[in-house]
Amino acid sequence: MTAMEKQPFRRQFSYWGANMVRNGRLSAVIALACAVAGVGLVGCEDSTKADADASAGGRSAAAPEKAADEGLLTGTKKIEVGGRLVNVSCAGTSADGKPVIVLLSGGGDGLEKVAGIQKTLSEKNRVCSYDRLGEGASDKPEGPQTLKSTGKVLTAVLDRVAGDRPVVLAGHSLGGLIAARYAPEHQDRVKGLVLMDATSPTQTADLNKGIPESATGPAVALRDQTLAILHGGEPEMLTVPDGKVRSAGDIPVEVIHHGKQYLAAVPDYGPGLERAWTNGQRKWLAVSSHSRLSTAKNSEHYIYVDQPEVAVRAIERVTSQAADRA
């Protein structure tokens, strides 16, 4: 298969590591990741701030921050993390005792993708998002990324946008996996999780079982390209091994699964892939003894786009529960 012939497969099946089919159009998403650790950073103005503000629907023009938020990043800026620039956006203000909400987008997506839900949530909360290295307006990684190095970037972002305040991580797809892997190692900081169709913690095994070596046709390219991404392919160059779900204690967690199946384009293997994905959502429940699973019945993979009200309610519920437990 030539490079040109491979391109259509790079634009399909979002949560299997390439992309997703929505409304007859193909939109990019890679589903992977993990995190850990911490690092310092220094803030600097984003040279493309005006463009970012416009695309974010004016989210950087947030209301004046409360005294509690003084010194924390607001608007859209780039911060330095380990010599690389990371694009970060924050809006809204913190209520007393309320965690800062941090949105983590899926692979292939930048903070602009979550601008709409960030704007809605910022009416009552302080909400931030960022472009991981290799995504959006952030720098490309210097080389291959590990779970630890990706975690250091997340920790650095949290240091700047939340200070010593507690946080709720709300992640989609790859971002959901990052959040769920990060929380157990940072229970002093992460006080709640919302996982929106998060990548399965056993994605490689699920894929190999769902599309076996004996498979033929388009499914083979889907499997091989997805596995290549899982082993450090672009854009984030992040290697993502399968692993058991570790516990983050009893923090409030909501796992939201898509309700509309859309893998009919791989008729021989689609049903099995859907079942594996659903099982992956159930596995994430083990991240906390206080977790619940729900289904966004009218949504495909992009729950916060297809049914934003479902995502907003879940994030606000978890944030309120985390604040009550503080």
UniProtKB/TrEMBL annotation:
<dbReference type="InterPro" id="IPR029058">
    <property type="entry name" value="AB_hydrolase_fold"/>
</dbReference>
<protein>
    <submittedName>
        <fullName>Alpha/beta hydrolase</fullName>
    </submittedName>
</protein>
<keyword id="KW-0378">Hydrolase</keyword>
<dbReference type="Pfam" id="PF00561">
    <property type="entry name" value="Abhydrolase_1"/>
</dbReference>
<feature type="domain" description="AB hydrolase-1">
    <location>
        <begin position="99"/>
        <end position="207"/>
    </location>
</feature>
<dbReference type="InterPro" id="IPR000073">
    <property type="entry name" value="AB_hydrolase_1"/>
</dbReference>
<dbReference type="GO" id="GO:0016787">
    <property type="term" value="F:hydrolase activity"/>
</dbReference>
